[in-house]
Amino acid sequence: MSKIYDIQNIPTEIIGQVGGKARGLNRLKAAGYNVPQAFIITDIQDGDTYDDAARKYSDEMMSEVAVRSSATLEDGNDYSAAGQFSTFLNVSGADALKQAAADCVESLHNVTAENYAKTFLQSAQSSMTVVVQRMVKARCAGVIFTKAPMRPGYVLVEAVPGLGENLVSGKMSAQQYRVRDNSIEEMPANPILSEKEAIELGRLGIEIEKLFGQPMDLEWAIDENGTIQWLQARPITIEESVTMNELDCPIDVSHSVITTSNIGEVMPGAVTPLNLSTNMYALDWGVKETYREIGCVTYEVPPYSYICSYYNHMFFNMSSMYTVTQSTYGTSKETMDLAICGRVLDGFPNIDMKNRPVWRRTLNTMIFLRFVFSGEAAKKGMKRTIDSLKFDLSQDMNGIYSQIINNFDTLKWVQYYHYCTSYYSGGQSNMLINFLGKDFPDKPTLQSAIAGCLTEIDDFESANVLRMMRSLAATMLQYTPDVASYDVHQLMEYMENGATDAIRAKYEAFMEKHGHRGIREMEIRCPSWKSNRQSFFTSLHSVLQSLGNEINKPEKSWKDYAEELLYNCKGRRKKMMYGFIEKARKGVCYREYTKSMVVYALDLYKQAYSKLSVLMTETGLLPDADCIYFLTQDEVGELLKGNTGLVKKALARRRLFPQQEALKFPDVSLGIPQPLEARSRAEEATSFSGTPVSRGIASGKARIVRSEADAALLQKGEIMVAGCTDIGWTPYYNIIGGLVTEIGSALSHGIVVAREYALPAVVNIDNALQEIHTGDEITIDGNTGTVFIDKKI
């Protein structure tokens, strides 16, 4: 027979057996805090009818109640088991109470709870106590974290109108109040809580933390009379080691120039821990190996010396990159700045810019020139390396992981060969900058002229993506004219069941050639077009809508731009400069080919990790497949060996990740970059200066594009405004009238394609996503690098 106790009268000898929820409410009540009337049902046996509980409910005239689980392994110091067992709100009537209590106990054995126990608790046995608590008629409710994530010293109060269950269950977003020392960091718009209420909740939260002797996760409600009621108290189980900066680069960069440029286009926004420890590690290794071969360093350089991470965002360490300018002839800080940042970085100290001895620089220069003029050799090296990269996904978990580790060196060499072709491509442009700099005191004008010389390049890899997609769309319209009216899901069904052999052949040819590409293709968590058909067909849908649009033709040929660039050159000098231009054009093809191969190699890794995550989920090592991306590569191996505590760390990281994604940073910093404070646009600002990278002038309505869903809303003639571009955006180039990005350069992959379609483009517009709003009427001048807001919405 089960036993019934009022929440404040639980016997001391059984307090450890009634579960964390009941224990927390008992302690709050004993300390004098307002806890709604409640009793517990404990020592529950199989076949219990819960008649005593129903009688208690009726005698107390409790009306509507909440019936909640309080399992012995729930709400503990190490694991919360939050949401694994059943909770029933607004239960009314004795029969309904008995059924809710029985269902709470039954949830001890549901699939979700058993999987949780298997993953986190090594299948430890749990017993169930049931808490019956009078419902609060809540004006508002929410949770308190006495130790605010990412903000040491603050208490985080989250509030929603009505029942807090809407927040806990994820059905409603909360307003946030960060409280410290009887003050609030910032009140939200249209606040649910008064400043006084928020401060009082924060103060009481700290009191309760002291009562329990550890950081707490508290559920509260404010009733119709304005009284704060406490509904739950449990320890915060997220590890203290999981913070926004947990995976920051450990190297001292206090005197280093750090930039988001270039790398922010390769990998915009925050990256997952798995991507950081695989792809980003390999990127850094590729730079390090080329610098070692050139002779820039003569000692062992630690990981992330060139490409570093802070807040899970990626940056170039320019001070490390500058070592090539001190170790060779023919390069300079200015050309390095222009190559990576698209502008000369002024106002930052040249830390330790000491040139190496003449004999050393001479030797290094000869080695460096081998990189600059060996594009074809690098392309062949890339092909050999790619051909050696194999995975057998029919193996078990340990077999797949072993292949991932064994192939990791191959991934690093893939990045190395891409850097080699980048040296070839960028080296030719740098030669032009060095030789023609005196003729063009205004560096943006020089960059714009060089960019004009890099148009009309035949059949290079990235532009071929859109060409093949347009060809597929044209064939679909030829056989099925009304296919242009299909939505994305209808297009997927059509390709599966209604397409002709000719259409299928073009679709399969595209997937064979470019199926490894996609949106945010350098993030291992983001599947390729081949693996995410909906993403591909979203892009194809846009192409079908715009197929009748004529592709803009450049007003001038690349040779016209070359003549402008070389206006002051004669004889042999002009012939030599033409040679550099020809090589720069060829270098674009080399670089685009090797970039495609980098993405191809990474897609093989994506497939391997995707299969591994499914197997680990099926065997109970992971609660879901997505968790694998929030472990580092080494941690995945540790989890396979049985370190199940890492799962909690992965879940904690995933919870923080959206907040890391929302961060923005200055394009250049001295020392560790710090997130920018969110700011609204300056009402008086009407024009902005950036870097011209694709000639022409365009006017139209702006469309802010942060995601694929945003891109799908683009209308013909709109100006696309984005943080950066990658190949995944190119299908939308048929529609837009121009392009503006916050970061970029003349050799950015998306910009190279934009020039092929004669799209006016300006990059390096600071804070463009805040200063420009969707619907603003803007004009962009790709000749001067200026963006004008003609009319704000």
* Bulk shape: elongated
Please give the number of β-strands. Answer: 23
Structural class: alpha+beta
- Strand order, largest beta sheet: 16-23-22-18-19-20-21-17
What value does the average pLDDT take?
86
Low-pLDDT residue spans? 74-84, 111-116, 119-125
Written account of the structure:
- By secondary structure, the protein is of the alpha+beta class.
- It contains 27 helices and 23 strands.
- An eight-stranded mixed β-sheet has the order 16-23-22-18-19-20-21-17. Strands 9-8-7-6-10-11 form a six-stranded antiparallel β-sheet. Strands 1-2-5-3-4 form a five-stranded antiparallel β-sheet.
- Helix 2 (51-60) packs across helix 3.
- The relative contact order is 0.09.
Question: Quick recap of the structure?
Answer:
The chain is an alpha+beta fold and about 800 residues long. It starts with a strand and ends with a strand.
What order do the helices and strands come in, and which of them pair?
Elements: E1 3-6, H1 20-30, E2 38-42, H2 51-60, E3 65-71, E4 87-91, H3 94-106, H4 111-120, E5 128-134, E6 138-145, E7 155-161, H5 165-168, E8 175-180, E9 183-184, H6 195-212, E10 216-223, E11 228-235, E12 257-259, H7 263-266, H8 273-294, E13 307-310, E14 313-317, H9 318-321, H10 323-327, H11 333-341, H12 358-372, H13 375-387, H14 397-406, H15 408-436, H16 443-453, H17 461-479, H18 488-498, H19 501-514, H20 533-546, H21 558-565, H22 571-618, H23 633-640, H24 645-661, E15 668-670, E16 687-689, E17 691-694, E18 697-705, H25 708-711, E19 719-722, E20 738-741, H26 749-756, E21 761-763, H27 768-771, E22 777-781, E23 786-791
